[in-house]
Design goal:
Gyrase A, domain 2; 313 residues; five-stranded mixed β-sheet; alpha+beta
Length: 313
């Protein structure tokens, strides 16, 4: 939920301003905090509202919107009928609808597809990217920001009008944020994977509670459910490290002369890799060295995942 500025609450203003943030902090009696924030300029924001918004979206996307009553935010995706991820996003519940936080490059196609699906539904679509900025808050507890649902160490998401003054505190770099994503094992398009080429399990979306297996039908649901029940998810994102800087994203990983995966984003000697977990399991069992363009690397599972080397669930 976005904050309401106390100065203009009687006008029904729903703008989340920096002044509103300061008022909430003072009202809470909290001590002053030094925020560590990252401006995520590569994100877009699409608002979906209207009387049919819930039913419209519930039948389209992977995430179960019923869960937003408790969490306030979730991770999900819009799939093709063949089960491929067309766009993945964070979704935030607002008083009158839903806010989608997604890669900026994917926003035009996402809007186009929503428009195609809505037909006569009472739904309004609005691109608010030009008026609202997206911040990641990596420390503290900011009133009316939302917890990032993918991992607790990703902190909070904060949405401020671009007309607001700059946030006070420590402004971190995109590299700082990329390193945090790497450390908790969260991949993001377009660096780690290409939209339209991957299934939800390939990007660990099921590990983020991003697939509503119990909610009923959504686009691509049959394919995704089949993968789950048959246990056929073989590609997964894992952690990768080396004793030197890692090669570029897309570099192939090999073990015993066989391809087992490829690198995603990296910062220095830490990175992410999409791998065939069965092939990694076989390589580890045989004590084969894993190489990325000749650089020896080590692989590790992200904390808390339900899959293991050679086991897909």
């Amino acid at each position: 939920m976005l904050a309401v500025c106390p100065c203009c609450a009687y006008l029904g203003c729903n703008t989340f301003t920096l002044q509103a943030l300061r008022w909430h902090i003072m009202d809470s009696g909290s001590p002053p905090m030094t925020l560590a924030t990252v401006l995520l300029a590569d994100r877009a924001l699409i608002r979906v509202s209207g009387g049919d918004a819930f039913e419209f979206l519930q039948g389209l996307i992977t995430y179960d919107l019923e869960l937003l009553a408790q969490s306030g935010a979730g991770a999900g995706a819009l799939l093709s009928p063949q089960g491929k991820v067309l766009v993945d996003f964070l979704i935030i519940r607002e008083d009158d609808g839903f806010l989608f936080d997604l890669p900026a490059d994917a926003a035009p196609d996402f809007l186009k597809r929503l428009t195609m699906y809505k037909l006569r539904s009472k739904v309004e679509l609005e691109n608010v990217t030009e008026s609202v900025s997206v911040f990641a808050v990596l420390n503290g507890d900011v009133p009316d920001a939302v917890d990032d649902p993918r991992h607790k160490l990703l902190g909070q998401r904060l949405y401020l009008p671009k007309s607001a003054k700059a946030l006070e505190g420590d402004a971190l770099s995109q590299n700082d944020y990329s390193l945090r994503l790497i450390e908790v094992g969260i991949p993001q398009a377009p660096v780690d994977y290409t939209l339209g080429d991957v299934f939800p399990h390939d990007i660990n979306l099921d590990q983020m509670n991003g697939i509503g297996f119990q909610k009923g039908c959504f686009v691509g649901q049959e394919v995704v459910s089949r993968v789950k029940h048959r246990g056929t998810a073989r590609k997964r994102f894992v952690l990768v490290s080396a004793q030197q800087d890692l090669p570029a994203p897309g570099t192939e990983l090999e073990a015993g002369g066989k391809a087992i995966g490829r690198l995603g984003r990296s910062v220095g000697h830490k990175g992410l890799a999409q791998v065939r977990i069965d092939r990694v399991g076989a390589a580890l069992h045989s004590h084969e060295e894993i190489l990325a363009d000749g650089v020896p690397v080590e692989l590790a599972l992200p904390d808390g995942v339900s899959f293991s080397w050679g086991r897909s669930s």
